[in-house]
Amino acid sequence: MPPSASSAPRVEALDLLRLVAVLGVVLYHFGFWGPASHGVPQVALPWLTPIAKYGFLGVPAFFVISGFVIAYSAEGRTATGFAIARFSRIYPTFVFCMTLTCLAIVLLGPPHFDAGFRQWLANLFIAAPAFGQPYMDTSYWSLVIEVMFYAWVAVLIAAGIFPRRVDTIILVWLGITFANELTLDAPLVEKLFLTDDSGFFAVGLLIYQFYRGRRGPALYGMLALSIGTAVFQSIHKAVKLAPHTGGVFDAWTVAAICLASVGIIFLATRIRHVPLPSALVLAAGGLTYPLYLLHMQFGYVLFTRQAPANAVPWVVAIVLAMTWLAWIVWRYVERPAQRWVRDFLSGRAVRFGWPLKLGATVGSSGGA
Asked: How far from 190 is each of 121, 141, 185, 229, CA to CA, in Å?
């Protein structure tokens, strides 16, 4: 294999694809889903419904990219180093954006939207429904899936299995998936083993294997199995969405979008450099996470507050404002907070004698 991923160049095209995926989700939320709190059935741009309703597939695309990025990030790290890297990347930005959303709901939400201290406190743990409170923004459900995926990877790194036994991990994971989806249908198994989303993560993990130079019939076969699982899960998601949204989803269209997304992500990992300024590409990728966290409920509050006769200009203004706010969060909050949290936790880990890199001495682990 080539040198470790820590010395490999940044996959710039994935930054742009993350932005495309989040814009698909934005389209879904404003063109199809709409504000639903307190019985407000308003959809901002209903004339976009035939296209916007498929924007939910932006989230599975994120999961595929996440599978690749997590395999990339785990290279050369111990479970402690991996956990610190993921926590510092995800949590400070989440808390800041969740708090902004809470303030927007409290100040601008009544009478259609409301939030309180207990809800904010429960959302600090991300999985707020586990504490009897609703998500501050219902799009946070996918963050719970991501965190569970990270937790499994950390456990498998600690056990010395990941990434050394990635083939076995994927085969067992997909086996559990089909055992549950086709026979057991146990909610606990679904939540614990992510059986509604395993195919997407598995595809990302295997694309990383290609990226690292691996080839062979076993890899091709597993990739085909994982892609088939992802297509099955995409269609299954559409079937589950239909009764809740009143939408009608064409299975062939869902499958085609899923396959196209996987193909584009695979091709993106083969592009070493995109012909755009590196700072612009970095910003495009960086703002996607805060934009995902902020656009939905915060945007709904603004939209419902204004209740415009002509929704198009107002929705465009909201999306542009959320994008600008997301850039500010990324540039002035996320990046410094991530560095501070990472350095602080890394220092504590070194103090307790927990190395952050494989094969590193304790004294040299602090800069991981």
From this structure: 26, 14, 8, 15
